[in-house]
Amino acid sequence: MKDPKSIMPASFVSFRSRWGAAVCAQTQQTSNPTLWLTEWAPEPRDVYWSNLSIPFVSLTVRRLIIGVAFFFLNFFYVIPIAFVQTLANLEGIEKALPFLKPLIESPPIKSFIQGFLPGLALKIFLIVLPTILMYMSQFEGLISQSSLERRTASKYFIFLFFNVFLGSIVTGSALEQLDTYLHASANDIPRIIGVAIPMKATFFITYVMVDGWAGVSLEILRIRAFVLYHLKNFFLVKTEKDREEAMDPGSICFYWSEPRIQLYFLLGLVYAAVTPLLLPFILVFFALGYVVYRHQIINVYHQRYESGAQFWPNVHLRIIVALIASQLLLLGLLSTKGLEEATPVLLVLPILTFWFHKYCTHRYKPAFVRNPLQEAMRKDTLEHAREPNFDLKSYLADSYLHPVFKSDDVDKFYVAEDPGAEEVIVATKRQSRRTTPVQSKYDGSDRLSVPDSIPER
Fold this sequence. Notes:
The chain is mainly α. The chain contains 23 helices and no strands. It has a domain at 55-370.
């Protein structure tokens, strides 16, 4: 409290009106753009406090370091991807390990190697990757949990696109047709990839079954959470608070679940015109995922924060990337079928798709970034007319208090100070309200989503 070196180079400022907050957050305050930076603050639950102490100058250096590290991580992960693809090729295994030929030729082992082993091995290699990418995003210096998850999800999708999707196609066909790749010109590479796409349909079917179907089943069973709870309950739980923390289900991890869903969406778009046999497997995954994740989000997981749908622009961008990739790969496939005359006509598709993305970006993305002054003034006027005595200051008094100053002892002291104050209870299906202290869902009205009565502390 008294050490001047402990003061963070950041602060949260509250305004009496939305109009004043919008003007300050969306304008440049000084002639030097790096001297005084203002931006919309994340909601109190969304703040990632550890990164608020990072100086602004070091943020650019950190992001450069992470960019280089992410490039090399993508590059070197091709090695295990290529190893996985060799497992799908029995001839390659027999050439590399001839003493295993009698074992491989047995029908059960052969069916397992060709069916589930490649997808299972790839799933194992990808288990720790989202955690590594999250640590990389935290090192970049982002100040909110939602921005950390969005940045990690973007990295994870890039990785899945280049290594799992394109890597599985290119490395698999390269191992099978290495001589063709080495002696082919650059103009023939799209044609070779077009030939390789149908050859990898079986691998992606098994990958959807191993990663998608099995992942949905494990999500509803929650075996990991079940085991961890009993371990914590046996070794760590001593008080009722410890038991509540051990039973905490956590929140859904958007940074690894959402990119996986969009990978299956990409596979469906690519193979819809190439190998439609893959589509029923993807449709079954989406049907199961809708039922399971809907139940988990409503009844199991906590909502750690509310970001105001900030995920959607990134999701929209990845959908556009999947559409353009599927159209370009379809052009490469048609060129192998002697339909070169149709290629110039189909080139219009990616151009129109990109134009549609630019239109949506200019038309709708500002709504996710800026708050219009017209809407801010309208809501301020309505609030003053409907609730002239509304006191926002008491509600915001300790909303952005650093977690180190929030303890059970302090809360008990304040409760003892005013025993007559009634606790505000929000209706919820979950047993614990430890991470959801107030209602965060916007009800569609013009009123603030705050408790009707706030105890005086």
